[in-house]
# Entry
Amino acid sequence: MNPFEARTLEAFLRAVSQMEQPLSQDLAQEIRRVGRALENHELGVIREIPSLVERDVVLNEQYQLAYRSLLNHYQAQEHTKSLEIPVNGSTSLDFERQIAQILNTDNIPIAAKKFLSRRDSQLTDASKQSDFWKRGDRVMAIASGGAFLGVLLAQIPGAIIGGLIAAIYAWFTAPQTQSDRNV
Amino acid sequence: MNQKYLYAAWLIFTIIAISVVLFIRFHRTSKWKLKFDELFNLAFAVFGGISGGYLICQTWLYYDALQKLVSNEGLVAMALGGLASIWFCMRTIGELAGKS
# Structure
């Protein structure tokens, strides 16, 4: 799955999950066709999604909103991180299977909503963890410097005090993290 | 004799680390899954952490002798090296546990 396909699929799922009115019979059938194609790993079907959503005004509106928001998110990260849907490897295949299952259910919007809420909470947890380790790296580096400066100035007690002060300084002056921005 | 203790500590801490990683992963994703390369990384990260702990212990045990040889600056530098190894071991365990 390339980044464009991943973004299209995610925007589509987010749009469907926002649908409060039931989907028309025709549209639901077409979505299930997309689901079956995904199950068979026919990724070309993702390119049909933009024309598919145009059949419903509300769905199209939600899709455009979700797509723009994902695109902005992707550009804001300056391509340093991958998209929220993994684009390669076995995890990507697993996602395709899960999305195919959602698109084949009777109530597609509810299934999509549940899937996205689970996925969003996993991503938030992962982001918080990554921020914790990044902050920890900073504390280790600065506290080491503080401890070494402390030992030069006031022997062992200086090292302990210098290390502690530098660690506290590093922890509380860490740059704003991704999870801080999400709050 | 000392080497035997280190191997034993490696084995015990690796088993503890694997249990922690699997427990957290199961809690998050309901799957008991650890790939071979992850196991390999975990085992060596744990040994790195043990080496850090060993360095700190040795610095503490031979404090007086080492102080004469490397002075207080050297002792602090050794302890910082040990702490850094322990930190990177913890970081590897934390990252592996958080990976879905």
Notes: The two ends of chain B are 40 Å apart (CA to CA). Chain B touches chain A through 15 residues (CB under 8 Å). The CA atoms of residues 25 and 97 of chain B lie 6 Å apart. The first helix of chain B runs from residue 2 to 29.
